[in-house]
Amino acid sequence: EFPGSFPMSDARILVLGGTGFIGRHVVKYIVDSGVGSKVRVVGKVLAALAYLTPEFEEVFANPVGEFKQGNLGNPSHLKRTFDDPAGAFNIVINLAAETK
Length: 100
Known about the structure:
Layout: E1 12-16, H1 21-33, E2 38-43, H2 54-60, E3 65-69, H3 75-82, E4 91-94
């Protein structure tokens, strides 16, 4: 065990770009595996508009999860992304990308 380590079931995970193709699969894996006490997903596209299949809609409806819409290029959105009254995130997964 590493100093300062914590049980993965207590992990607070932030997934940037979590509604994209790769992101939604990563979020599904995290939720289905029971890893983490909280999973915040941040993306430009609202989860309701991300063409999620019923399988992924169920994942995004899980009470462990939380979705926030945000443009990570905007400083005020970036601040809201990381701010959480319950505490800091232990793990950040960045899958955000700009598409044209």
